[in-house]
């Protein structure tokens, strides 16, 4: 799309990871000035869920548990480098917890395992 002729007929729909790409990859185009946004098609909030066997009800309790059990907890994502993975890596960095990343081949697989 970055090299497509600006003919007014070509559209691209990008995922939420589009905004993170410049910090992960060397791009041959400017993702900010190289495109003109026309609409927000959807919005997806991040929701943290845990297995019912974990004795936590809040994010604060999850952080306390993860710090008490470094390296013992794991989180699933839709794949390495995806927006869920990046969000949880940021969570780890912001809270100082040591949680293992387990990438799956898509979000549906990560939720059903």
Structure notes:
This protein is mainly alpha-helical. It has a domain of 69 residues: 3-Layer(aba) Sandwich (D-Maltodextrin-Binding Protein, domain 2). Helix content is 29%, strand content 7%. A two-stranded parallel ribbon has the order 1-2. Strand 1, helix 3 and strand 2 form a beta-alpha-beta unit. It is elongated and about 55 Å long. The mean pLDDT is 86.
Protein traits:
113 residues, mainly alpha, D-Maltodextrin-Binding Protein, domain 2, two-stranded parallel ribbon, 4 helices, 7% strand
Briefly say what this structure is.
This protein is mostly helical and 113 residues long. It has helices at residues 21-24, 59-68, 83-95, 107-112, and strands spanning 74-77, 100-103. A two-stranded parallel sheet has the order 1-2.
């Amino acid at each position: 799309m970055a090299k497509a002729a600006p003919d007014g007929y070509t559209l691209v729909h990008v995922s939420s990871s589009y905004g993170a790409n410049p910090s992960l990859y060397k791009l041959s185009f400017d993702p900010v000035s190289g495109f003109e946004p026309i609409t927000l098609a959807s919005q997806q909030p991040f929701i943290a869920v845990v297995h019912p066997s974990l004795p936590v009800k809040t994010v604060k309790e999850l952080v306390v548990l993860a710090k008490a059990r470094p390296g013992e907890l794991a989180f699933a994502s839709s794949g390495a480098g995806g927006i869920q993975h990046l969000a949880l890596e940021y969570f780890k960095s912001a809270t100082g917890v040591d949680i293992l990343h387990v990438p799956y081949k898509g979000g549906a697989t990560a939720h059903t395992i």
